[in-house]
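Sequence in, structure out. Go.
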Amino acid sequence: MQLSKNGQIVMDWFREITKIPRCSGEEAGISEFLIKFAKDNNLEAFIEETTGNVIIKKNATKGYENSKTIILQGHLDMVCEKNQGIVHDFSKDALKLTEHEGLLRATGTTLGADNGIAIAYALTILSSDEFEHPPIEVILTTEEETSMKGAEFFNPQNLKGSRLLNLDAEEEGVFYISSAGGIDHHMYLDFKKSKPSLDSKYKVLISGLKGGHSGSDIHKERGNSIKLLARTLAELNSKFNLELADFNGGSKINAIPREASCAFYIDKSFESDLNTMIKELENLYNNEMGSADSVTLSIEKNHEFDTVMDKESTDKLINVLLLIHSGIDHKSVDIEDFVISSQNLGVVKFEDNTVIISNSLRSSIKSLKTAMVQKLDIIANAFNLRFESEADYPEWQYKPNSDLRDIACKLYEDLTGNKPVIKAIHAGLECGFFADALKNNDIDILSFGPNMDGVHSPDEYLDINSADRVFGFLVELLKTLK
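Output:
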């Protein structure tokens, strides 16, 4: 594959980044790497004490000293997901990269191009003297994939820029000018444990689903393993009156869950019916999903659990999971294929004597986000569950007049002969926090990035040529913003 000189440098930096563990909340290694980089390149840099964000500053090149300061923004962390059976310790292991037909992937795990590519772009610009640019402030935030803590609590006094380029988008030729706000909602079902009274123990597993990003992939009608397992459990419980020992699905609240499992006891006389029913349900779900997704239901005899949930709590859990909506909530009638609000039932897990049910809500209209929270609160109250909301982050509202957008659109058309696509995104960009915190700077924001897909899942890939082209556009844009 023939890359430009700068494109090759970008990919060299990206490959170096994939050697450094950086799951959300565990960004210390990448932060130390960046501070050392800044010191080696005689750049001003520091780690914000309260957030862990890394900020690196570079002076303007000759002739750009009086230009408006540009903020380059991305995030340090990545979603750490792996397929079943993959041996990988995200706390210490480097990612295993594969490249095929111009696409870069990690073997059995997420790649972290979301948002490692922003780090690679920043390092390439900061380490070179050949690019023309205004004063640059780079801010790379922590915990974007979980709580957006870094963006929410950064100190606006640390940034003087009035133009911000967010490099956390995933479609080349698309400029994002608005993003959804979001909030996480958790329910807590407390239950009693007892010894099982039935003799045959089984485990049902849901697997094979595509999963994906709970914002950018929610409109693709992909299967949700938790919802499918809840339906499965409801059918089994109605016929076999089972005793539930465990229910576990999903691992990240902002990822569409691909896998889920439940363990239970039934009467031995139902064993043959159980296998037949599981196969029938697998066929039923695959017929419903059509070409959007496919699922495998498998069953294992025996499991490791020696206690079960009380009957009342079992029925309550099943009903709650059936009632919770997961998917599109509202879709725009004015903008084609634009999801306004959605809900993702992302994680269900047993912890001691409590089941935790976690939902990720997104909306570009605040009132619809509030309405979704109210519905979940009503369900929780109806079944006497404890509940709470957290990680509330703002939407990034569309700015009708934007010099930055106008300059970028004209440049893109001049360079490519094509007009860029202007979009609002149904994913949680950090731009809302920056727009609010830097409003006194009269901040102007634009978001773009290279082609990638499957983010937040082990199917994630980065289009290498696209990453090269987008970096070339970024360099020209910095040159133009004089």
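Check: The mean pLDDT is 96. Residues 319 and 378 are 13 Å apart (CA to CA).
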